[in-house]
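User: I'll paste a sequence; please echo it back and then give the predicted structure.

Assistant: Echoing your sequence first, then the prediction.
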Amino acid sequence: MNAPLVSLEDIDSIAVIGVDNPPVNTIDARVRRGLSEAIATLSERKTPRAAILHCVGNTFFSGADIGEFSGPPREAEYRQLCERLERCSFPIVAAMHGTVLGGGLEIALACHYRIAAPDARFGMPEITLGVIPGAGGTQRMPRLIGVEKTLELVLSAAPVAAHTGMSLGFIDAIVEGELRAAAIEYARGLIARDAVPRRTGDRCVDPASATPEIIARAKAQAIERYPHRKAALIAVEAIAAAARLPLQDGLEYEEKLANQSKASIECRAAVHVLLAERATRKIPGLPAGPVPRPLARAGIVGSGTMGIGIAICFANAGVPVTVVNPRTEGLRRGLAAIEGAFESMMKRGRLTAADKAKRLALITGSVHCADLSDADIVIETVVEDLIVKKSIFRELAQVARPGALLATNTSSLDIDRIAAETGRREDVIGLHFFAPANVMPLLEVARTESTSPTAIRTAIETAKLLRKTPVLTRASFGFIGNRMMEGYAREAQLMVLEGATPRQVDAAMENWGMAMGILGVFDMAGIDVGVSVHKANAEKYPRDPTYHQADVALYSAGRLGQKSGKGYYRYLPGDRTRHDDPEALEILRAAGARLGVQRRTHTDEEIVERCLFPLISEGFRILEEGIALRAADIDVVWTSGYGFPRWRGGPMFYAETLGLEATLQGMLKYRAQFGPMHWQPAPLLEWLVAEGYSATTEPLDRRSHALTHLTEE
């Protein structure tokens, strides 16, 4: 018989309320019901002199059940639960550890006393999901720490340490040792001094913390930090109300605003991305039998930027890794770069000296591929050259142990042709990391027709081990992300040949929400990289003399981007700040004139549309061709790896909110202006619109019959 989620135990007139809802004690409907029943039971007994509320496992309540966001409002249930806690006739102590976020912290605020383990962390990150604290947080926290400090906590959305919570005033004590035992002792102390319930809701908000100047400053910060979004401003409104409304009125106002924010596209988009990220490890159609192979040791071929980043990932995960570079000097530089990266982490307080030493000890270097013979996974990260990669995989097939996963980090070369060199195609897979590999969360997992289910499962488990978000894709040119970027990059480059400045193009996209404009990205990655890829794959691109020629013009002038101090922009030594450069503008103007590109003016609206519509249309083609399993997977690729704003939900979700009809009409509008070469809408998009689908009908991923229809035809 399963143990109850919420348990009750009596110890010396102290009621011990325990919650065990693994893995992270989410406050779902069952937990809320169990807590309400426990409080009712204790109130009937009238025997406890105090109570403690604690959670089993690695954390106190981690937050609300994100799956409930798409259902009916639950704020009233939270409000009633917190009211029951707060109105109890005996003191209740919240004993907190782990990561106490959102609704978890709000439940603690309804308790009468709060103690914490030294390494506990606390936060209200709701606005990152497009919502506001809706379980009393906007009303109770200001009564403990004031409106100004609450605004700072909520608008930052970042967790704070236990000692910070204590200095702010919402934690009463930090306790050492076993938390449950310490909480019981703390409750005994309350009983010894005849302490009574100290109800947060009975306190008054310090009016000095809620002056008009403070509120105005918070609103300005909300607009600056979260442009185009509403949740932060709604949170300011709710928190400010705590200074003028009695608790019950404030809680009802908070509930109204919380439900208003949950209905927004901003919230729906952010929740969509979060749930999509959780779903990427679920692979439909994969046999249930194969189990992933164990990963005790790893090998990396190549000690450049990508190789060292992946090596750091394995060391961070506690996995020994051997880095191979046949050139001694290149290997030395790579290992030195790894040590420098760990040193930087240590200086920033992310690692201790002991942690650094431990992780460095897991990394060894070699000039011989034969030293990878005991690796369970080998990842090749060398230059994008098919001949070179095929040579490496021929050698790996000879030295790697049977069953070892052989992975290539390519995103533009034919993995089938690479696998053909091994005689063990079933073990070969693509693992496309994003730079810097030890920071970026996305991992595109590219399977060929020959990749075995066991290899796929092993790759997915590797992603989990390295704390990456895996997205399974069919091996094809560009996979998902880079293939979709082609149209975006093409139009951005064409517009600067037409007379737009790089700053104008990038600013329009950044103001729309992209983390970084595409031309700035090219400068950061290296213009020579893009030119090299397009030269090597010229047969895959349209016969358009203007295609990616802005890159070519700058490259021919020796402008490689940040690495050379000049590209689309100019850079000062040691500084990545983008400076406008008249020389770059003249090179682009001359290239446009030479190619016969017609000059034109550009509005921000046109820039955004011309960059996004081709990207979205290519996403529909990728779905139709079965390159991606789900529309949501495409959204994860772009929000995790390409800086697409999470609050817009990814390109496919954005097409839904924009409306599929509007998306199609946008493609047709520019087809009429520029011709069909680059502006022919994806057949799936046309079919969905013809069948009457729109943003108000089923999400794309539920339209399996639409995809099946196209496949059968």
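The CA atoms of residues 318 and 359 lie 7 Å apart. Residues 482-712 form a domain with the N-(1-d-carboxylethyl)-l-norvaline Dehydrogenase; domain 2 fold (CATH 1.10.1040.50).
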